From TrEMBL:
Organism: Paracoccus homiensis
Keyword field: Cell cycle, Cell division, Cell membrane, Cell shape, Cell wall biogenesis/degradation, Glycosyltransferase, Membrane, Peptidoglycan synthesis, Transferase, Transmembrane, Transmembrane helix
The name this protein goes by in its record: Probable peptidoglycan glycosyltransferase FtsW
Catalytic class of the enzyme: transferase
Gene Ontology annotations of biological process type: cell division; cell wall organization; peptidoglycan biosynthetic process; regulation of cell shape
Pfam families in the cross-refs: FTSW_RODA_SPOVE
Record's subcellular location: Cell membrane
Pathway: Cell wall biogenesis; peptidoglycan biosynthesis
Membrane topology term: Multi-pass membrane protein
Main localization, broad class: membrane
Top-rank taxon: Bacteria
InterPro entries the UniProt entry points to: FtsW, FtsW/RodA
GO molecular function, one term: lipid-linked peptidoglycan transporter activity
Length: 387
């Protein structure tokens, strides 16, 4: 009884793939992704110009690059969304293995671009962040393990998934990239919960994560500096958090006006990690609420469609992808308003970054593929036919 979801969709013999895809894909989520990308380009027109001028580049250099990367991401998303759950699983597993190999090689061939964390591979004309591409593949791999464990006589897939999670989290923490490590661990916990893990075990893993954070605080100056800055009752107005906080306060309900914001001239990462501060200052609370609504719509609709999914792999992997997508957006915006310590995490489809937007396209393509309606119908209908 694999690949079953709610609703019925008629499939005719020889039905062309594009019409079948259009009838079965979640059009609301697809529209929300396009909306986020459009907002990203709009904000990039304002946020990236100061950086381009500082680097003696054409004014819209970064916007043009984002448009190219975003176009590639949307094409990749559309193609992947046409795959079956089995094809998504194969693509994810192969992608996870490749991204994992690149992360292992980072200490030797990687670079930190002066940011204190070796996360990137520099290819000269473009840089690549393997951890961005690891996330969707990791979700597919662990979902495969967990789904296999549900079969009669199946392997100890949950144990395998735990080993994979621990290995990936440790490698990311060593870069150090605690933000991505936390997101990977969260994704695994959500999938493990959906797969039927006991709450005691989940609390135990969460406790181990807290202990790991305490150890990292004492062992990593990079991590300790960010935590101390977050816990400090005073905000240094000359820091990125200080600039972002002031910009959000200045924006008010309707913003100071298009192109009238000042934070983009002060924040070096205004076009990436703190893009929401630019949105809040120039367009106000209205724009921020619109962005939040788009993210919530994608996550909620995906989870509702997955609730009636009968294929264990599709249900587990889809839940992991949807929750990781939403939590990444939550972390990015939470950092900007100082609800969370600085993580260096982008806002999916909105922030500038080739690796980020293309990896988001891959993840969203996989999610759209797993949430497509299937022709098998409700479980009750299948049981009635079998009588």
């Amino acid at each position: 009884m694999t690949e079953m979801v709610f609703g019925t969709t008629p499939v005719r013999a020889g039905d062309p793939i594009l019409p079948r895809w259009w009838r079965t894909v979640d059009k609301w989520s697809l529209a929300c992704v396009l909306g986020l990308f459009t907002i990203g380009i709009l904000l990039g027109l304002a946020a990236s110009v100061p950086l381009a001028e500082k680097n003696n580049l054409p004014r819209f250099y970064y916007v043009q690059r984002q448009a190219v990367f975003g176009g590639m991401a949307l094409v990749v998303m559309a193609v992947i969304s046409m795959l079956s759950p089995k094809q998504v699983r194969r693509l994810g597993v192969m992608g996870c293995i490749l991204a994992f190999a690149l992360i292992v090689a980072l200490p030797v061939v990687g670079t930190d671009f002066g940011k204190g964390a070796t996360r990137w591979l520099s290819l000269g004309f473009v840089s690549l962040q393997p951890s961005e591409f690891l996330k969707p593949g990791f979700v597919a791999l662990c979902a495969w393990f967990m789904a296999a464990a549900m079969e009669v006589g199946g392997p100890p897939g949950k144990l395998y998934s735990f080993i994979a999670c621990a290995t990936v989290v440790i490698l990311l923490a060593l870069q150090p990239d605690f933000g991505q490590a936390s997101l990977v661990l969260f994704s695994w916990l959500v999938m493990y919960f959906v797969a039927g893990a006991p709450m005691v075990l989940l609390f135990g893993v969460a406790g181990m994560a807290v202990m790991g954070g305490v150890f990292a605080y004492g062992a990593s100056e990079h991590f300790a500096r960010r935590i101390n800055g977050f816990l400090s009752p005073d905000i240094d107005p000359r820091t990125q958090i200080g600039f972002a906080t002031n910009a959000i306060q200045e924006g008010g309900f309707f913003g100071v006006g298009v192109g009238e914001g000042s934070v983009k001239w002060s924040l070096p990462d205004a076009h990436t990690d703190f893009i929401i501060a630019v949105a809040a200052e120039e367009y106000g609370l209205i724009m921020v609420l619109a962005i939040i609504t788009l993210y919530c719509t994608i996550v909620v609709r995906s989870l509702l469609r997955l609730m009636k999914e009968r294929d264990p792999f599709a249900r587990i992997a889809g839940t992991g992808l949807a929750c990781a997508f939403g939590v990444q957006a939550l972390i990015n915006m939470g950092v900007a308003v100082r609800l969370l310590p600085a993580k260096g995490m982008t806002l999916p489809f909105v922030s500038y970054g080739g690796s980020s937007v293309i990896a988001s396209g891959i993840a969203m393509g996989m999610l759209l593929a797993l949430t497509r309606t299937r022709p098998q119908g409700e479980l009750a209908e299948i049981l009635r036919r079998g009588r």
